[in-house]
Design a protein that fits this description.
CATH architecture of the largest domain: 3-Layer(aba) Sandwich
GO molecular function: DNA binding; DNA-binding transcription factor activity
Shape: globular
Family: Belongs to the LysR transcriptional regulatory family.
CATH class of the largest domain: Alpha Beta
Organism: Saccharothrix tamanrassetensis
Largest sheet: 5 strands, mixed
Helix content: 25-40%
Oligomer: single chain
Region (Disordered): 295-321
Biased composition (Basic and acidic residues): 298-309
CATH superfamily of the largest domain: Periplasmic binding protein-like II
């Protein structure tokens, strides 16, 4: 254990999930070469090769598989110990940190109210997640669960329930030629500079919320890249580009006289999903998922069991401290 580096262990665990040095680096916010360096250092400490890597694939060795099986539970136990001490230091028997992007959805507000009524002793902290980094806060354990824009294709995450389905609008400057239109088509995005999201977000996620091509394949000019929704709206107001937003977010910002929100036809609907980590979910997060389900507006949907990870979200239960 002498000189053991937690960062090396984290690099191994993430690489074991991704089996790709580039994607592991993105999740760890380091370069691909840094992941390789951390792995080599860990292998030097243990005196054996843990990962076979070739130009075509990455896979764990037999010893690497054994190390993963032993390390995973120990690593999670270490983090739980830190979380428990942090909670005790704050004098909180039960707390929940909920991440959200942009603005609080009306349905989310209802769910928070219901959760508060059911568990008045649970302290709820709301944490805004940057638009450019939808998954980082959950991976860094800064939140227990997060409400993010779909799609989510992260192998270490589970999504559910899904809610707040809305059609898209195009935010444009009040001076933009589209500002007086009743609607625009997805194909007409080829005539706009669409504001993008910085590269902290996965490419597949950015491609949905700032598409580079129309449904028929016409190129969409790229506008500036932003970290937050407010940055994007400020650039729209300055006529530096346009931005795709769901109608609920557009309605929340409809007071802006310098920005017009024009409905877009021909795009899939925007959806929000409640996301949690596949291997660590406190009971408070599961109870909050149930509150989200119970406040869904569709009675038929409420009557169907929601799958939140590997267990159905059940009735309200006492929360563990």
């Amino acid at each position: 254990m002498s000189g053991l580096e937690v960062r090396e262990l984290e690099a191994f665990l993430v690489l074991a999930e991704e089996l790709h040095f580039g994607r592991a680096g993105q999740r760890l916010y380091v370069s691909q070469s840094r992941v390789s360096q951390l792995l080599r250092s860990l292998e030097s400490r243990v005196g054996a090769t843990l990962v076979d890597r070739t130009s075509r694939r990455v896979r764990l060795t037999a010893l690497g598989e054994r190390f993963l099986a032993d390390l995973g539970p120990a690593y999670e136990a270490l983090h739980r110990a830190v979380d428990d001490v942090r909670a005790a230091a704050r004098g909180i028997g039960a707390s929940l940190r909920v991440g959200f992007q942009g603005t609080l959805d009306g349905h989310l507000t209802d769910a928070l109210t219901l959760f508060g009524d059911r568990y008045p002793d649970c302290v709820v902290d709301l944490v805004e997640i940057p638009l450019s980094d939808p998954f980082g806060a959950l991976r860094r354990r800064e939140v227990d669960t997060a409400v993010v824009l779909l799609p989510v294709r992260e192998p270490d995450f589970v999504v559910g329930p899904v809610f707040s389905r809305h059609h898209h609008t195009l935010a444009v400057s009040a001076r933009h030629p589209f500002s007086a239109r009743e609607s625009v088509s997805a194909e007409e995005l080829a005539e706009c500079r669409v504001i993008g999201v910085h590269s902290d977000a996965p490419e597949y996620w950015r491609a949905v919320h700032a598409p580079t091509r129309t449904p028929t394949g016409r190129p969409v000019p790229s506008g500036p890249a932003v970290h937050t929704l407010q940055e994007g709206l400020s650039l729209v107001a300055a006529d530096r580009g346009t931005m795709l937003l769901c109608r609920a977010t557009a309605a929340h910002h409809s007071h802006r006289s310098s920005v017009a929100f024009v409905p877009v036809t021909g795009l899939p609907v925007s959806e929000l999903g409640l996301v949690r980590h596949r291997h660590r979910t406190p009971p408070q997060a599961r109870a909050f998922a149930q509150a989200v389900v119970d406040t869904l507006p569709d009675p038929d949907h409420r009557s169907r069991p929601e799958r939140f990870g590997d267990a159905s979200v059940g009735e309200a239960e006492p929360l563990a401290g």
